Every structure is written in structure tokens, then in C-alpha cells.
Amino acid sequence: MAGLTGHPVLEIGDKFEELQNNIFNNNKNKEVIDKAGLVVKGEENSNNNNNNQGGERDMAPPTSNSLHRSGSRPQLDLSKAAIQGNSEERDPTILLPNQSDDISHFALDIGGSLIKLVYFSRHEGQSIDDKRKKTVKEISNGSRRSYPILGGRLHFVKFETSKLNECLDFISSKQLHNGRIDSHYWNSEAPNKENAVIKATGGGAYKFADLFKERLGVSIDKEDEMDCLVAGANFLLKAIRHEAFTHMEGHKEFVQIDHNDLFPYLLVNVGSGVSMIKVDGDGKFQRVSGTNVGGGTYWGLGRLLTKCNSFDELLELSQRGDNRTIDMLVGDIYGGMDYSKIGLSASTIASSFGKAISDKKELEDHRPEDISLSLLRMISYNIGQISYLNALRFGLKRIFFGGFFIRGHAYTMDTISFAVHFWSQGQAQAMFLRHEGFLGALGAFMSYEKLGLDDLMVHQLVERFPMGAPYTGGKIHGPPLGNLNEKISWMEKFVLKGTEITAPVPMAPPGTTGLGGFEVPSSKGGTLRSDASALNVGVLHLVPTLEVFPLLANPKMYEPNTIDLSDHCELEYWFTVLSEHLPDLVDKAVASEGGTDDAKRRGDAFARAFSAHLARLMEEPAAYGKLGLANLLELREECLREFQFLDAYRSIKQRENEVSLAVLPDLLMELDRMDEEARLLTLIEGVLAANIFDWGSRACVDLYHKGTIIDIYRMSRNKMQRPWRVDDFDLFRERMLGSEGKKPRPHKRALLFVDNSGADVVLGMLPLARELLRRGTEVVLVANSLPALNDVTAMELPDIVAEAAKHCDILRRAAEAGGLLVDAMTNTLDGSKENCSSVPLMVVENGCGSPCIDLRQVSSELASAAKHADLLAMVKNQRLAEKLIKGEIYDCVCRYEPAS
Ligand SMILES: Nc1ncnc2c1ncn2[C@@H]1O[C@H](COP(=O)(O)OP(=O)(O)O)[C@@H](O)[C@H]1O
Ligand SMILES: CC(C)(COP(=O)(O)O)[C@@H](O)C(=O)NCCC(=O)O
Ligand SMILES: [Mn+2]
């Protein structure tokens, strides 16, 4: 644990324009690191970074709870109700007002080789926790906005076109054609199957239309393939973080493309055949070229020549191939010499398969590995070269390659990139898309009118990687996992095959040649994962209620990941931390569900699933998009939820809250005895002290045995000797209490971002909130929407506040004014309370269910609250303190940035 530190930090600022902090809400590896709060100032980084992982696949909806449980970005409908101004309305989002019978939840792209299916599942209905309704109403006031987009999830699946039946079975089994998913109707009226129309593109939309009518009773609405490709590509490039990346010499780099600087570009879709499209805008494009030498050529010729049974097998063969045995090199022609005058090295391929003519070898005499590699290089170079020529023709600098020929295969991408780079002398750049083969299907999906999908923005989409999605068994897809039980069974089988799926495919570097004077692409082809697991495509969650935090000074530069795990040392470190912590977490999770056999089985499946993710990411850190520590921690929470551990720390949190609440009255008395200045300082120290002690961690539990919570709290508070590492207390005090000649200037509204349950919130944050309230500042407590380790959630806060309010008039009046004490209000309503002049104490959820907050995607509730806020205090923690604030463990940061 050397070098690993935690720092309590209190950041208080009223200079919102300058807020571009990374908020590391709390990374919690309880047994491993000392936990404390801190703030980390944003590292300026032009690459946005957020890949959200984990998540669910369509499973039976979890148990009743007013919070939606499916994602770290819970799709709470809070804002909707408020926005619609009618809390009675359960599901005010009217997506397709005039349609009831011709809606489908999926679209198809039926190509020459593969069928791509994109389907939508809707979020189940959500309601607002009663106690918070008033807050939500109050806060959202004036921020009316209607959301035309329905929240839900987009799933991506593919099948071989030759196995159309599998696809039809899949559609039937999921009841996609009946307009329902997971028993949730798209809208209230049961759809009329007879009139069902589904959008489809690709040649198969024409070829198989009758079959769809016959088998599923649905009509196909044909969408133009090129229209769809372009619509899909534009959508992905605008709306998905880390969609595009470059791949050169084995190095993958995500590229964030500025929306305003996207066009024009060349789109090269490498399917069975290749289409090249110059794209100038949404719906503005021209198919400028194509080639019949494409994916079908590689797979078709390859199959004939190698007798391979699957595309992947062929691709895998290539990784062990040496194409020099079959390609004719410049050196073969020039007696081992370069043809330097025209820039061709001896190792350049002069003629693909050229040696097959001169050699007296038959097909059987050639290694299938060599044939496959030679073929792959031939086709990839050719595509790269023709693409470059077309980019040159129209002066295009960027070429995006899509289509399933790419298949996320490092060597293929390197080869294409090499060709583009070489021929354009670095002027043009090849880029690839994570949803490579799904462009057409997505485009077809988006062509459903009134879906509002094209209005979706980056911050409303969250991608997750549930076990079912990337790891679904089978060749191309597995049997659809109908419910959690099937998923667990699948995980149990998975572990048997686990090594096969997670271990790299051994391969020798192909010592092969380059072309046109450039040397061999150095990427060795890397690991070719089984097709299912190599789908670097998760489930896309559409969450229309998410917003960019309005006080972010520069959302483009904001980077929520303070720790970038593309640094291998970091990754390894965290991998170890998380792996070591896993058994304990599983114990807690299982205990939280009553320790039943079912819970144990789920716990086991969770451990397997999370380990598989970790193994996958160790092997390929960018597998799910750019990876940061925040993503990894979120993945763990998601994975817990996937196996229906809704709140692993439930009882621990309860105990901590109880213990802390029991000593709160003493603490409040102590505070009230102090003079103003001493009290303010003590409060700040208290916030820092309470955040240091993390009652979920073993170290703290030990401590807790050694003394009472209040003793420990006081002790650590006393250790907070000023000056702190960052110490703006005097400035803050001046604003709060005034100084000679200067009056105190109370803030209008404060947002307090709360972190842990127990001492942290009860002894640290609530007393601070109370002081602010006392001074006439409205306080909004901002908490997680869903449980994540021992974080306190927005749902839990009203009860905690109610309990605290029993001992404190200020809190009670404020909580009543904020509508948190619903019962108290109705019980003691005497008219005067209703109009009580007390400033309100409110609670909002932050829209997140992860230990780390990403201010680019917060609940609309929080966004609204922030618009009227005047002071912002955040309590967070960080780990590598010396890295981030160049400090030591338990250093305190109290940063106050007054408005200029
Ligand atoms: N599992 C697979 N089965 C068949 N072909 C695959 C597979 N994975 C990748 N491919 C490659 O992808 C190509 C199909 O790409 P795709 O974009 O789906 O085109 P199409 O629309 O023509 O079906 C195939 O010709 C082959 O080269
Ligand atoms: C005909 C196609 C548009 C069909 O799309 P695909 O199924 O290959 O994805 C495509 O195969 C293609 O563009 N072929 C190349 C034809 C040419 O321009 O030479
Ligand atoms: Mn296609």
C-alpha cells in the first residue's frame, strides 16, 4: 500500500464558472485503501473519457423499488414528472403519440454475409420516492422541457445470413415482432401484430421480405442501405464517446471528434463487398466508389483455399501465417535487392500469391496459415489503397472504416492504416468504429420516425457491458438469455470454458513483408477473441434525463477519470486491488441478500463475471472504450447489479448511520456552545475528519472497537492542524462571518455532495448543512441515485435527515420546508408550518450509481438545482494523493474559490 493515500478534501466554491473539477466522488476499496474525501482539480485533457461498463442484459426486472435498478445511470423518471408538471402522470414521456400498431422495437440490416439486429428495450416504469417529490418539484421548477426520446436500451446482435432461421427464432423468442420486450409494452396499447412493420435494410430486406411475413407476420419497410450506413455512422460519431479510434502498429487510440468538425469524411463499409461514401452532412452523401474485393472475398476465397469452417478460424490462422512463402516479394524478383529507385524494399510484396505460380507446389503444399495471411494482406492493402485514392479524389482527410470484415482485428486495422498512411504520406488518416458492422442496422433503427433518436446527445447515452452481451455463448450469438437464472447457468458453464475465452490465442509474429517501400505492420494481430467476446459493443442505455452539469466551465476539457488505466502499471495495481477485494465483496453481497443458496450462487456468478471483465481488460484495456479508474469502479457496481445485488452494503450502512445518529445530539450541543468562528472551523474539520474515517473499511471497524464513534471523530478532527495542504479557510470564513468593515454575505443555495453513509454524512455533512441553513442558505444534499459500496443514496437521505431532525430544530424546519418530512408536515400541520419562513433543506440524486461521479452526465434534477446554487461544497476522496495534490495521507484540502 506504499504510496497510496487518501485525503479528506472539502472544496467550497462560489465561482461556478471556474468549476471544472474532476470529482472523484469516492473510490472505495475499503479494505485496501484509506478512504477519505478530496477534490481533484481537473486535468485538462482534450480526450473526453468515459466508458461505462457493466450493466444488464434483458433480465426479469428486479424487485420492487422506486429506483430503476438497471444501470449505474439509473433511469429515474424524476425529472419527467416534474417537467410535465403533473406528478400523477406515471409515464409522461409520449414517444409515439399517434401510433400504436405499427411500432417495432428492432431494425435489421440483412447483408450478404451477416444479419445485424439492433433492438430496443424500454425501461420499466419508475416513480418518485414520495419524500422527495416536493424537492424535485421545487428544484425543477422553471426548467420545463419535454423529452421526445424514450429511455431504454439498445442491444446489438448478429447472425450469419445463411442461418436466417436463428435470427427469426431470436426475434420470436424475444417477442420483438410483437412490439414488446421483457413484457414491457412499448406503449399502453397492445400492438396489433397484423400491421406490424419493421425497418430493414441491406439486400436481404428485399430478398427475405416474404419469409418475414410468413414466419413472423410482419411487413418489412425497406430502407436504403447507403442512407442507413451514413445515418448510423453520423449518429455513432456524434453521440457515442470513444466510438472512433485509430489503430497503428498495434496501438489503439480513441479519437474524440468535434461535432462541428466531422464533415466531410469518407466512409468505407467493408462488408461482403465494399462501398465508399463521401459524407458531407446528415443525409448528405454520395457513394463515390466501391470494390467487389471485400470481406466476402476474404472469407470465400479463404474458405476454399484453407477448408476453414468459420471466418474466425480463418482469421486466427492468419495470425500464425508467414505470407513470404506464397507472396512474391520485390526481393524475390530483384535477387534479394531493394528496388530503391522507386522506393520499394526487398521485403515489399510485389505480387500477392505470386509465388504460387512459380513454385511447383499444389494447394496442399501450402500452409493454410500462410494462405490466410497472404489473402488478408492482399485484401486489406487493396481496400486501404482504393480508399486513399478516393479520399485524394475529394480532398478528404479522414476515412472511417466500418463493416464486419474489420472485426476489431488488430492486424487488419494496422494493414489498412498502413496503406492509407503510406500512400497519403501521412495526409489521410484511417479510423475505425467500435460498432463497425452495425452502422446500417442502427441507421435503419433510426429511421423510425418520431423516435427522436437523432436528437440524442452524448450525455444521454451510457454504454454498458453486461456479461450477456459480449460474452454470449455460441458462435455468433448464444441462445438469448431469458432471465437471470439462465445467465447464471451460462456463467457456470463459462467458467469451464473461461480460460479458452479469456486467455490470449498464442501466436508467432508473422515475419512478413510490407508494400510500396514500407515495412511490415508491426502489429502481430494480437489476440483474436472468440467472436462473441470480441464484440466491443455493449448495450447502449438511452437516458434522456441526463444532462451536462451546468456549472462545468468547460465540459469539453473536463475529464472525470483522474486515473488513466491505459498506463499499464496503474491498471495492474488496480487490477490487484480489485481482485484481492473481491472475495470480501462477495461475502458482503451474499450476506446482504440473506446468505441464501440463491444468493451464494449469484455471488459466485458475480465473482466470475467480474473476474472475466478484469481479465479481459488486463489483456485489452481499451476493449470497452478508453478505460479509466472511474469506469472500472463503475463496472464493478454494474456487475453487482447485473446479478441482482441491489445494495451489498445495506446493513453496514444502516449500522453506521445508527451509530452516528446516536452521537449527533452530543456533537450538535458541543458545536452550539462554541463561538461562531470556532464553530465554522470545527465544522470544516469535522467534514474532513468524518470523511477520513470510512466505516466500511476494516481499518475503521477496528478503530471503532477501540472507542466510541464520537471519540474517534473528535480525535481525528483534532488532528486536522492548519494550515492544511490547501487552505482557503480564511477566505471562506470571511465570506461567511464577515470581517472588520465587511458584512457576512450568506450564500443563496448550497449544493453539498455527500459521499459515505454513517459518520461522513451524519457527523460531517449534516452539521455543515445545518450551519448553512442557520445562516439562511438553502441546502441541497446531492447523493447517489443508486447504491454503490457504502455511499449514502438520495433515497436513504430523507430518513437520515428525519432522524437527525428529531434532535435539531433547524434541521427539522428546513427539512419540512424542503418537503423531506412529509409525515411530520401532515401530522402537525397547523398552517404556520406550511408558510414557515425557514430556508429549505432538500435532497437530489446525482443520476449516478457508481463511486465516481461524471459531471458530464448528471440527473436533470441536479442540473436544475445547480442553476440556482450559490455555493458548492464537495467532499470526495482520491487515492494517489502525491500524484494529484502532491501531498501525503490525511492531508486536508479546503479549497474555496469566491466568485470574482
Ligand atoms: N462470423 C462471421 N461470419 C461471416 N463473416 C464474418 C464473420 N465475422 C466477420 N465476417 C466478415 O464480415 C463480412 C461481412 O460484413 P458485414 O458488414 O456484415 O457485411 P454484409 O452486410 O455484406 O453481410 C464477411 O464477408 C466476413 O468477411
Ligand atoms: C452491393 C453492396 C452495396 C451490398 O452490401 P453488403 O451486403 O456487401 O454490405 C456491396 O457489396 C458493395 O458495395 N459492393 C461493391 C460493388 C462495387 O462497387 O464494385
Ligand atoms: Mn452490409
UniProtKB/TrEMBL annotation:
It catalyses: (R)-4'-phosphopantetheine + H2O = (R)-pantetheine + phosphate; (R)-pantothenate + ATP = (R)-4'-phosphopantothenate + ADP + H(+); (R)-4'-phosphopantetheine sulfonate + H2O = (R)-pantetheine sulfonate + phosphate; (R)-4'-phosphopantothenate + H2O = (R)-pantothenate + phosphate. One of its GO terms (cellular component) is nucleus. Pfam families: ARMT1-like_dom, Fumble. It comes from the Eukaryota. Residues 41-76 are annotated as: Disordered. Its cofactor is Mn(2+); Ni(2+). Residues 586-872 form the Damage-control phosphatase ARMT1-like metal-binding domain. Keywords: ATP-binding, Coenzyme A biosynthesis, Hydrolase, Kinase, Manganese, Metal-binding, Nickel, Nucleotide-binding, Transferase. Residues 45-54 have a biased composition (Low complexity). The keyword Metal-binding applies. Transmembrane segments: none annotated. Residues 62-73 have a biased composition (Polar residues). Its EC number is 2.7.1.33. PANTHER family: 4'-PHOSPHOPANTETHEINE PHOSPHATASE (PTHR12280:SF20), PANTOTHENATE KINASE (PTHR12280). Belongs to the type II pantothenate kinase family. This is Pantothenate kinase 2.
